Amino acid sequence: MTKFIKPLKLKPKLLGQKQEQDKPPVNQTENAGLSGAAWKDEVLGQDLEANLRQIKAILNKCSDVIYREFIFAQNEAIRLALIYTDGLVDKAQISEQIMRALALEVPQVVPGLELTKAQALEFIKQRGLCIHQVKESNRLQDLILAILSGDTVLLVDGHATAIINGARGFEARAISEPEAEPTVRGPREAFVESLGVNTSLIRRKIKSPNLKIETLRLGEVSGTDVAIIYVEGIVNDKLVTEVKSRLERIKIDAILESGYIEELIEDGPWSPFPTVNHTEKPDRAAAMLLEGRAVILVDGTPFVLTVPMLFFESLQASEDYYERFLFTSAIRLVRFLAMVTSLVLPGLYISLVSFNHELLPTTLLLSIAAQREAVPYPVLIEVLAMEFAFEVLREAGIRLPRPIGQAVSIVGALVVGEAAVQAGMVAPATVIVVALTGISSFVVAYSTSITFRLLRFILIILSGTLGLVGLITGVAMIGIHLCTLRSFGVPYLSPLVPTTAVDLKDTFFRAPWWAMFSRPRLAVRQGQKKQAQDLKPTPPETGP
Amino acid sequence: MEQGKIDSNQAFLLMLSTVLPTAILTVPDVAVKFAKQDAWISLVIATLVAMAIAVLIVNLSLRFPEKTLFVYPEEILGKVSGKIVIGLYVWWYLQLGSATIREFSFFLVTVSMPDTPMIVFSIIIVVVSAYAVYNGLEVLSRFNQLFIPVTGLLVIVFLLSTKDMKLTRLLPLFDTNMSSVLKGAVTPTMWLAEIVTIGVIIPYLNKPKEAYRVVVLATLTNGFLLTASVLEALLIFAPHLTADWLYPIYNAVRVVSIAHIVERLESVILVLWLIGGFVKLGVFYYAAVLGSAQWLGLKDYRSLVVPLGVILVALSYLLYGNNIVDLLDYFAEAWVPFDLLVLEVGIPLALLSIALIRGKGGKKG
């Protein structure tokens, strides 16, 4: 029995490494990571058998790794071995373009070929393999990483160098519509979990050699591919350097979602406000790039990070730039009001009802007083309870399996709201306020709206204790906090504060496209023109 | 010590918030008490005098564009007397800060929540300002910039009350004698000359040379808004009623009623003033903290934020008596000689003369 329990206990320490139970426990990431392993700096030898043995020892008990030994061009002297991971490779490609090509087709095309062992590697690379992407390496670390990433490693007997074939092919989700950022007008594609597909989605939008895609690998155990994308010439070089240095600082065992990176590189680690934005829409990512931002893609998640983030991004939707500007500007205003509502409305309601009655019109005051007559609790408790109920319903709506989720939340809201009012536990006005607040919070970008959800409770408590004075104190504190925030060197509230008048063109309203001459000042190099000055359509007076 | 830089716009807006929030509450009452319906003339005179003071202090400060008001007196006067002068200024800012706390606490207790202990409001104001001060001048001016449009709603409210105004209430013109008009001008001058604070922020302007423009525009705007508030009170309530009220402007806003929809605006105004108060206290608090740090030769002022906050609250209870009338008397009697004559005019003038004679500080930068 103990035999089975013991390895379980030690499992975290043993990941990806030979079982050495006697070794004293070291720092987990170092012990388990690829870069910290004992074989880190080792290289291949000449002997195929020895090489295979070494790799097998490292990939001990990895049943998904497949070793396939075969003979080159029916020549018994030259032995080859393929190593790849089941499920991560394109099997058809491996059997056709590697095995079949090397073992069968070479003798057909070049009959009577007499190769020595020493010539084999070069011949295979130049003439034998029919694979797009081929690399060479002799470092075990590279090879192991390649195998586990889905590449196919080809060992040739007598050579201390292995060929890494890029023949990846694994099951991935197809490109689909964005779930978190739906739009009425605009591209309907969203990023997927595969990094390669995601970079291609961006490349398809910006076909410029200045679009740079740099990759690095993060996560000692997970070895996650991360790409930094920016447009050279638009982006501020300092930003790219800063992003890279912040990413390189990350020493963690695994990166499973871009949220890990977000929390590890953001400017205000304790702030409730997000200082790194994310999106799942390639068109939005491309727009960010063209405004001089850097985009960070993480393999395994459709959410890409964009930096720096400005507060006003939470009021902007990608659709704003596709609809006509007058309507968009009006909608921006609505969003702004909704944002303010979602933050202060419950607090304001409490202040007005329990402290500053004089601000309410008399008829409204009487009607609220009549409603609250039967309610046993002070308005503060009432609002807190209703807000709590609303948060529970909202969370249940997300967590529950999709088919029941919505039904439950709707029924829950109806039953709880309706029944609570009927039973005289809450005033109808409170239900209205809480519902309006909840709906308003859906209007702003999700990452900011959850911040406001949190801050709302603080404002509720402040208003419940000090009325309007408390509410304003809370709002002022939030205001000061926003003023202290920066995201990658850019003040969070810019271009509003500090004011850059030209850049206000895309904040509370959106200027028409023909008037957006310059790129935003703060993120890019100074004074960049982005388009011609005379784009305003001037149709001729008479028809054609 | 202070890393941030602010631009001229921010400095201008900061100078508005340095003077206006409390001035607009109490100045009409004081000015009208002396000068009756000619109080607006007092305000015009006050603006002109304050302008001269502002130009004086900027001229002095620009001789030492990298140094604050808390550093260059030492260079001009030498170590010992320099330190004494700097100490006086630090004390002045402590006093101004605590007076701001007191005024706002009184105001909130009187008009909004009479049953709440006053200390609650004092602490709230100090805590909010301390948060801004701790984060430095840059954050303070950004915070001001963020909320000053809201305070600007005040101007709109002024306009809303035009229908209750009667121009005849200003008559007879020049009925009071010159000395009353001048007496009425003294307290507003003291308030407007709080713009001396520019001497603290000039080193942190990204274009120090624009300081002249900043103070002239700021004094004009301050003077204009104060004159407007006095006129507003006079036109609505006439001199006697205005002089009887502690907060004439607050009452002026109370009478606004348009179609029974836009009315009862006074609580809104109260709240907007509160934000102004955060900034105003923030400026003096910041000056006191920065001044003490430079006076004591500290490397960083942040360690002083909390202790000075406590001192400010304590002073606000020790210095100004038990009620708002005591406070206003204190302003009118104890403050004027010390503040206006010594700190706002006397010392800067003396410093400038000595600097000129000794040839200290050039027009460099």
Automatic annotation (TrEMBL), chain A:
The keyword ATP-binding does not apply. The keyword Transcription regulation does not apply. Keywords: Membrane, Transmembrane, Transmembrane helix. Residues 525-544 are annotated as: Disordered. It comes from the Bacteria. The chain crosses the membrane at residues 294-312, 333-355, 427-446, 458-482. It holds the Pfam family GerA. Coiled coil: none annotated. This is Bacillus/Clostridium Ger spore germination protein. It comes from Acididesulfobacillus acetoxydans. The lineage of its organism: Bacteria, Bacillati, Bacillota, Clostridia, Eubacteriales.
TrEMBL record, chain B:
The chain crosses the membrane at residues 12-32, 39-64, 76-94, 106-131, 143-160, 211-238, 268-289, 301-320, 340-357. It comes from Acididesulfobacillus acetoxydans. NCBIfam families: 2A0309. One of its GO terms (biological process) is spore germination. GO terms for cellular component: membrane. Keywords: Germination, Membrane, Transmembrane, Transmembrane helix, Transport. Belongs to the amino acid-polyamine-organocation (APC) superfamily. Spore germination protein (SGP) (TC 2.A.3.9) family. Its main location: membrane. It is a multi-pass membrane protein. It is found in: Membrane. This is Spore germination GerAB. The keyword Chaperone does not apply. Pfam families: Spore_permease.
